[in-house]
Design goal:
By secondary structure, the chain is α/β, with parallel strands linked by helices. The chain folds into 2 domains: about 140 residues, NAD(P)-binding Rossmann-like Domain (Rossmann fold, 3-Layer(aba) Sandwich), CATH 3.40.50.720; about 100 residues, Orthogonal Bundle (N-(1-d-carboxylethyl)-l-norvaline Dehydrogenase, domain 2). It is about 45% helix and about 10% strand. It is built from 8 helices and 7 strands; from the N terminus they run βαββαβαβαββαααα. A 7-stranded mixed sheet has the order 2-1-3-4-5-6-7, with helices on both faces. α1 packs across α4. About 30% of the residues are buried.
Length: about 240
Amino acid sequence: MNILIAGYGFVGQAHEKLLQEQHNVMIYDPAQGFNDFPNDVVEAMIICVSTPSAKDGTCDMSNVYDVIDKCPDVPIIIKSTISIDGWDTIQEQYKDRQISFSPEFLRAKTAYDDLKNADKIYIGGNNIEFWSLFKKDIVTCEPKALVLAKYFRNAFLATKVNYFNQVFDLCTALNIEYECVRKAITDDPRIGDSHSYITEERGFGGHCFPKDVQALLKSAEKEKVNLSIIEKALEYNNIIKSL
């Protein structure tokens, strides 16, 4: 099958590696020199394009809309992070298209291994059965629920990073060894030691956490919902990043 991957960052590259033995995988990403959009032969498309923060902190979906507009009427799965409003727009503007959403939970440094070793994927939308080609168990869910799940998972991990940064702050003030405290806390299997290590940069950063936290807060603000815990985590992050 001719499968087009739009967007060749770590998510797109992981999907290419997973599928290339069984399918003819093509790439579209003008920023990286893949300029040809083979709409005359493409039979399915996986969208992995970037969705950066807009100036107001919301999720900029323009790259997603652009590749959907270019693509013929074939099954499309969106792996890019999208917003609730973005999915509503897709439903309105492309209501007759075969479009699904499937959040990715891949780490940048281990994206292919994470994807290969995942025992299931979450998908919502149209023509879900088509994506059995991933050879994973499929958990179906409302697309908007999956949009929120992606945002809240990243927001939780970002908040956990800064929870442990505050543990570190108090340990430092009291001249107590942080590693001993950290280990005693994270030995509890309900907590675990991921995102508990303190980096020189302090706080959370990277490609996903800052923009996803901001976009989630913007969605909550629009609905007049108080996400004060996540909001305070972002405020603290901005403070320690400025020191």
